[in-house]
Amino acid sequence: MSTTTTRVEETRWRTRLGGKRFVALVSRVRELGLIVVLLLIIALVSLQTPRFLTPGNFEQILLSIAILAIVAVGETMVILTRNVDLSVGSMVGMTAFVCADVLKNHPQTPVMLIIVLGCALGAMLGAVNGLIVALGRVPAIVATLGTLYLYRGLDSYIAGGTQVSAYDVPDSFLALATTHVLGIPALILFAAAIALIFAYLLRTTRAGRELYALGSNPDAARLAGLHRERLILLTFLLSGLLSGFAGVLWGARFATVDSGAATGLELQVVAAVVVGGVNIFGGSGTILGAMLGAIVLGTIDNALTLLKLSQFWLQAIDGAAILAAVTLDALITRWLQRRLVSGRQR
Amino acid sequence: MSDSSEVKPPALDLEASATAASPSAPAVELRRTRVTASERALAHLPGWLRSWEALLLVLLLLSLVLGSTLSPYFLSASNFSLLISDMMEKALMALTMTLIVIAGEIDLSVASVLGLASVVLGYTWSHGLALGLAIALVLLLGAFCGLVNGLAVTRLSLPSLVVTLGTLALFRGLAYVVMGDQAVSNFPPAFTNFGFGTVPGTLIPWPFVLFIVLALLFSLLLHRSTLGRQIYAIGSNKEAARFAGIRVDNIKLLLFVLSGLMAALAGVVFTARFSNARADNALGFELDVVTIVLLGGVNIFGGSGSLPGVVLSLLIIGVLRNALSLADISGDIQNIAVGALLILSVLGPNVVRRLQEAASRRHAAEAGPGRLARSARSVPAEVGASARERETSH
Question: A231 CA to chain B: closest CA distance, Å?
């Protein structure tokens, strides 16, 4: 009798350890694979053109993905809970226009207040998404496909065909994107800081761990007493808030903003996150992985430009990257599971 | 992790084993439990709300009233001819989308397939291919695009939402690769006449004739054939359908291929109507197509819905867009209304159902344990629905 119990206990423990090892193994395989891909691209392209492997170009790549990376941090948290936020492009576009427009009409507004305004507007839009998904039980992809068009429509309505150009806004606003701190562009520092802070929070805080729990097994999470609604609302709100901040930076970086700003950004963001090894079924993946995904896609983009290949390839590559990444995930998972099962039987 | 989504909560086994025990009429059996569950739910509603189609009729009347107040030109035969003509591509794609959503999947790539088909048609024709051959080639290409989606969904068991989000970007991107920002517009009159032309002596556009024929075919397929029943069964409970001997993967693959084929056909119609092949043709049409299907009463989690409802909601969206255009409201701003309708068409029924669930729980608690035992009979259907919700709530 007692031996049976211990054996049951033992198997239970082994499965639990196996589970943990398994997830760690998958993400390690994925992130290592990504670094190999990145090194391959770098090697191939630098053989073709000497301008690729320079510090200046490296900075250029990071600069081009900084805003996308900030949005991707929020998207990662949403995808971890088995949801997706397709409205990020529209939220970035709307906050970019609204902030630039406020500055155009009231040039005296302090930049700090504009940042707060952008974040608050984004958080509000994100909260609407969160309420529809968490309380209304509308699948995230349907809800945010709806708000993608709804927010973009509101943006066009507010803009009414006008645009804000670099001459309309004060230099202190544009400086948000152009300032260098210790020789590094502020945009890159913003993105790096946000990624590091959220990566730390996700790893150490209770809410961070609960996101993983909710994503890997919603039923178990509910039985363990997790508040599904609250957590989902939180992730969508954060995704909106970060999109709002990204919108402010978008306005500062591109200076000329109309109602079409950041159209289609959502596909690039989802591509970066999924390529970065965040599992689209939720429950596994890291923010640093997503950042790596953004860097890989940014490097491909940059290489296309340097090799003078057509920019028209970009969207096709984003789409192919999403497909390749989810296919690879499915295959790796299947393979590892098979190995694990056969290992346990022996 | 892909496999973990396959693992069903134990509650589902009840339904699965029940259907496996009576394999003679599994689809009908499943259907009946679902209908009784929804009928019970509907009984709490005020009378005029009892059928979704009735609600749609009211919405259609409202949008007609809106149209006639917004513009004096709205209520004219030529405007209705134009309105119908403008809806044709979305109407064609909504037919196959209905089947796919009822089977519990979704295809977000349809508008991109349309764009790719239009561009390839223009490209091959302008490079000297006979138009008939070019059309055949494009239809094959559409079916192939659908095959890619279908294989990824069935063979790799990936969620269709993600696969078709990827191919949405991929196919649209390929359209840009083929054509860049160029356009082909000098199509022969015989082709474009099919697009703008009407049946002689009437104001009925030719594409509408094509749509009517296909709509009848698809109605027969969905509502009167074995395959149709199997599609409902798959959407109601994939595992039970598999146990009942339905070839779930083959049927899903077929539906995705049909969807790609139909999107390519819509691409041919679009190209003929505007005499224009461009990479950004029909950009964002997937919003309208998905909205039409969900507003038409098709359950986003699969298993229920009908083509007549979808045709009604097709008319609503058509009238709404036409009325707003006549009032000089731009497409971007019209999207506010369509986006809101999309969300409300899923949110509305969900909220109503939750309110009713709460009400009936209160009711059951008041009536005591006797009632509880009686209502337990319909539990499997509800459990099945909520389990499916969890599975798809992605």
Answer: 15
